Amino acid sequence: MPATGAGTPPTGIAVHRLTVLYDAQCPLCVHVRHWLRGQRQIVPLDLVPAGSKEARRRFPDLDHAGTLEEITAVGDRGQVYRGTAAWIVCLWALAEHRPKAHWLTTPAGRPLARATVLAAAKYRSVTAAPCGPDRACAVPAPEPAG
User: Fold this and answer.
1) For 87-144, what is each residue's pLDDT tens digit?
2) What's phi and psi for 82, nearest 5 deg?
3) Which of 121, 68, 97 is CA-nearest to residue 7?
4) Prediction pTM value
């Protein structure tokens, strides 16, 4: 699957659904997963643990080792967003955050988007437990309501 470099879907390619592959062993990633689930979505988000059997079933041609290294979002037409672009396209899918996503793709916003993703990656590197021997991550339990 080709990776797209933009933070929002390319012109002329409609995105009707996104699958977000996240590190299920990372407390920050799991927190963001729950946050995304609680947001009003313009474009529906399927949240799937990176490297899981489900991720491999849905995307057999995807570099699954790479999805364990950085957030990856896959559009319903095969668009692949990684790292900063994946985070921006996730925000783009949310009703309350679409304007911010557009701003983050501008020359003024790109450095902030990149710094945010780098900070999250650093936090993840010191807090995430490694995935299982087959690099498959388990699905986390839902956070308690409250």
Assistant:
1) 999 999 999 989 998 898 889 888 777 777 777 766 666 666 555 555 444 444 444 5
2) -125, 150
3) 97
4) 0.75
